[in-house]
Amino acid sequence: MKISQIFKIIRLLGLRRAARMKKHHEQGLAYVRGYTATCCWWTLLNQGFFDRLVETGPLDWREYAQKQQWDEHVLEGIIEYLDGIGLLIRHNAQVVLSEAGKILLAEPRGMMELLWAYEPCFTDLSEMLAGRKKYGPDLKRRITYVGKGSGRLCEQLPYPVMRRMVLDHGCKMVLDLGCGDLAFLGGLCRMDQQIRCHGIDFSEEMVRFDREQLQTNNHDGRLTVQVGDMFALPDFPAELPQVDCITACDTFHEYLQEPQRLIDLLRALRERFGQAVFVIGEFCLQDPKWLRKHRTASLEHHLFHQLSNQQIGTADQWRQIFQQAGLNVIEEQIFDLIGHGYFALK
Q1: Nearest to 154 by CA among 162, 145, 165
Q2: Which of 30, 95, 175, 223 sits CB 3.0–4.6 Å from 219 for a disulfide?
Q3: Does residue 303 sit in helix, strand or coil?
């Protein structure tokens, strides 16, 4: 903006009012831009556009739009906007990821995918508030993106901690309950060439996704998956060795409103699998006062759970459930900073 125009605005409004309006506008813009950028980012992320940029580098977006049969005018608008806020770099018909875009496509990608999983709740938030729509009967999260987003986020700490627990206890046949996108089990197979892993997930959609991924790499047949309800376990493949480890990451809290059901499940698993080690990772409720001071992503995560009728337990609550199920904690790691706990049980 030209200096002369700035002085003109100050003469019209006064310095104090002009400065206050600018500050307040910038504060509001942060939220408007966050929403707008997220929607634009989701659109191209979910269509594989950014992954293509990572693979190929500079891309002629017009040719790509024609190949994909996209509306060039809409794509140009999205690219121009993302270039304007610094997530893409556009030069004529060529576009590449900026450094900021590359960062957003790295660790934070899981947050974007998890938010997309719960996007139906936010689209119909007014309907939910008015009681005209309920989570479950009327709308659901996108389960495949729950698995993908959670899998990416859990790679940052939960999965490394849990894998180390599994390997430190010498386990060789792992049954994972609510296996999601198989990222946890796939990592175990890479770390130990002798381990055998089998996942079950209640969602047929999730298991279809998993089987597509296994066509690329099933770790020499050591990683398998099937649809299954952990409360009524299905028959396992005949060639599956004896299970010596049962794992679950962020699975049990979805049933925490019925703690006795979880206790009965753990008792049944303990009776069926004898001396198996249990390795459980779960959310542990954080103090709201602490979160107001440290505004971590747990705030959004807690909201996701409230809108979808899920509960988060305290570390003590999990210990009580394990104790009532007849399981003893043999190793424990609690990270209050991220609101997560890890338990090895026997």
Answers
A1: 162
A2: 223
A3: helix
Instruction: Locate CATH 1.10.10.10 in the chain.
Output: 3-104
Q: Contact, 209 vs 242, CB < 8 A? A: no
The whole-angstrom separation of Cα 302 and Cα 156 is: 19
DSSP element (H, E) containing 110: helix 109-117
**27-59 per-position pLDDT tens digit:** 888 999 999 999 999 999 999 999 999 998 999
**3-104 CATH fold:** Arc Repressor Mutant, subunit A (1.10.10)
Alpha-carbon separation of residue 254 from 121, 250, 310, 313 (angstroms): 17, 8, 5, 10
Residue 115: C-alpha distances to residues 22, 120, 153 (Å): 30, 10, 12
The model's pLDDT over 237-275, given as tens digits with 9 standing for 90+, comes to 999 999 999 999 999 999 999 999 999 999 999 999 988
Helix (H, G, I), strand (E, B) or coil at 341: strand
Strand partners for 344: 279, 331
CA 341 to CA 259: how far, in whole Å?
18
Q: Look at strands 88-91 and 277-283 and give their pairing.
A: unpaired
What's the CATH number for 143-345? 3.40.50.150
Q: How far is CA 313 from the centre of its chain?
A: 19
Q: Which amino acid is located at 346 in the chain? A: K
